[in-house]
Design goal:
disordered N terminus; alpha/beta; 8 strands; two-stranded antiparallel sheet; globular; Rossmann fold; 2 domains; 406 residues
């Protein structure tokens, strides 16, 4: 691919992709006839809808394949963390069990009852499991993919939804191979397992289905990250947003993906910040709606894993004292977010020197500068941009310390 101009790069990062073209046209039309006040309700509804977006992921397979461990790993939890799925118990339930994400309650992972019975009927199973509820299915096997896994995949495909084959407990496979053979080539052994799975699935009628080899206890290794990238790539913009924000912070790249998504929300918060409730920031002549500003920063902090509960979960996962992770985060990011904290961190200082012209060049190209550079909009936009930058940099440092990466 060739290079892009700077304006093209800005457009790529700033385009508000949560809106359809029809919605963008309506925003422009409403602004032309009624100004900012007329478009505020539309943007407020969009922010609310995004916050309420549901994502339901079904995890199925035979009992004992590691479904509970996988669900915990996807939520960044260990089995002894509050809210974790119970691990190692005999499966007796015949109903789906939903596990909400610890910080995004509209994201659910559903542990579906085992598919291992001889009388298994895929069509009846999916009806009983409320098939339409789920955005996609993850079919987990701890050895080879069984006949019931294939039956289920065929029925899911017939009904028009996505599914993914996951081969779990790869760490145990390698452990057993090491005990049996002593020295061996790990890469070759993994390729052997993968090839065997792919071949058997092809024989069953799935010649192009990838197989993800994972260990729920080692999510930074094997295909765990590749699986998440595959899931992300098959979701639409709105669902993709919530899926990425729900990912555990396993790498700097995940933090950066989250930051990019959050940046696309800033102009919406900025538009809502004008009018009633606008209060000057101490030391700055411009004003904004303080509740919107603080609420957005608190939300950004939680999404980037810098709130107390998220840091504790990451510390548990990484086997590090939580104080070691917190020591890498600059105050007042760990404190209550207040106007005083915003002033102390200097997020509003640069606003005074930013002209309307400079701002327009940095604004959302799809909308253009229809919202102008009103003081409340400008203030909120610049403060949130500065806050997100600092939060992102701190989240990246935390991940590096947690997993001892450069």
């Amino acid at each position: 691919m060739g290079g892009s101009s700077s304006s093209e790069q800005v457009a790529e990062t700033e385009t508000p992709s949560f809106f359809t073209q029809e919605e963008l046209n309506k925003l422009k039309s409403d602004f032309d006839t009624g100004g900012v006040e007329k478009v505020k309700p539309l943007i407020e509804k969009k922010v609310t809808d995004l916050d309420k977006t549901e994502l339901n992921i079904a995890v199925t397979g035979e009992s004992g394949t590691g479904k509970s461990c996988f669900i915990n790993a996807m939520r960044g939890l260990r089995s002894d963390d509050p809210g974790a799925a119970e691990v190692g118990t005999t499966e007796t339930t015949k109903e789906p069990t939903g596990y909400p994400h610890p910080t995004l309650p509209h994201v659910h992972y559903w542990d579906l009852p085992g598919t291992g019975s001889p009388e298994f009927r895929a069509a009846r199973y999916l009806t009983e499991m409320k098939f339409k509820r789920y955005d996609f299915f993850i079919i987990i096997s701890a050895c080879r993919f069984k006949e019931n896994d294939v039956k289920l995949a065929k029925e899911i495909k017939r009904l028009g939804k996505k599914f993914y084959f996951v081969r779990s407990k790869i760490d145990f496979d390698l452990y057993n191979t090491r005990n049996e053979k002593g020295v061996f080539n790990e890469k070759e052994e993994l390729e052997k397992i993968r090839s065997d799975c792919v071949r058997k699935l092809a024989e069953a009628g799935f010649p192009d289905s990838p197989v993800f080899l994972i260990s729920s206890f080692e999510p930074k290794h094997f295909d765990f990250i590749q699986l998440n990238e595959g899931l992300e790539g098959d979701l639409n913009n709105v669902k993709k947003r919530i899926f990425v924000l729900a990912l555990p912070n396993l790498s700097v790249e995940i933090v950066q993906k989250k930051s990019k998504i959050l940046r696309k929300l800033i102009w919406m918060f900025a538009t809502l910040s004008g009018g009633m409730g606008a209060v000057p920031i101490p030391g700055v002549s411009l004003a904004c709606d303080i509740s919107i500003l603080i609420g957005a920063i608190v939300s950004f902090r939680k999404c980037l894993g810098l709130d107390d509960a998220s840091l504790q979960r990451l510390a548990n996962r990484a086997g590090k004292p939580v104080e070691e992770l917190k020591a890498t985060v600059k105050a007042p990011l760990l404190e209550e977010i207040t106007i005083d904290a915003i002033v102390r961190f200097g997020w509003g200082a640069a606003v005074v020197t930013v002209s309307a012209l400079e701002f327009a060049l940095d604004f959302v190209p799809v909308i253009g500068s229809i919202f102008g550079a009103g003081s409340s909009f400008l203030m909120t936009y610049k403060i949130l941009s500065a806050a997100l930058k600092d939060l992102t940099e701190n989240a990246e440092r935390v991940v590096k310390v947690a997993f001892e990466t450069d």
